[in-house]
Amino acid sequence: DPHTFTNLRKMALDITIQKTSIPAPHEKVVVCIVAFYVTLISILYFLQLTIEQWKLIVGFVVNINLLFFYGAPLSTIYTVITTRDSSSIHRPTMVLNTANAVFWTAFGFGVLDWFIIVPNGLGAILGFVQMVLRMVVPCRENEFGLSSADGGGAASESKGDMDLGEDTSATPSSPSVMVDDSN
């Protein structure tokens, strides 16, 4: 059917030329990072370097990337120290990033590769700093028992109790359990 082919061609063209801008700012960052790595690998390929030169250049570039990754919580650490509120530290992410850094650091020591040990060791240290801050600095929680990093939202913490503009005292805790008291 030629009509179906025309629709598929139009859809493919719309996707590839992207008539609309990329919806999320982080997608632009991802595209730039991918373009950077593709360009770097292409240049390294055409320079016809030895394997040791490849390892050195790629090792430095990836370590810079890892430092950005593990350095990202620095702003959160600063926020926790200045506000004396550890609710901005997302516990699952903190635990997984720290575990990742610890395991890669251990692997780096196992193969004695400083390109693995240094950035991952720094990531492990920053992860442990976050864990200590999370345990020592109090976490302000909203009325639902959730911190802002765990899905509670920052609006309720800045205003105290959440004001929904309605009386919720008579509302049952579960919408599926409604009792009719009119009898």
Write a structural description.
By secondary structure, the protein is an all-alpha fold. It is 65% helix and 0% strand. The protein is flat, with a radius of gyration of 25 Å.
List descriptors.
183 residues, mainly alpha, 65% helix, disordered C terminus
Short synopsis of the structure:
This protein is an all-alpha fold and 183 residues long.
Overall number of strands:
0
What's the pLDDT, averaged over the residues?
75
Low-confidence stretches: 152-181
Rounded to an integer, what's the Rg over CA atoms?
Answer: 25 Å
What multimeric state do the chains show? single chain
Which series of helices and strands comes N to C?
HHHHHHH
How is the main sheet built?
none
How many separate helices? 7
Task: Report strand %.
Answer: under 5%
The end-to-end distance, rounded to whole angstroms, is: 64 Å
Into which percent range does the helicity of residues fall? Answer: 55-70%
Name the structural class. Answer: mainly alpha
Shape: flat
Q: Helix and strand layout, with pairings?
A:
Blueprint: H1 2-17, H2 25-47, H3 51-71, H4 74-83, H5 91-111, H6 114-136, H7 155-159
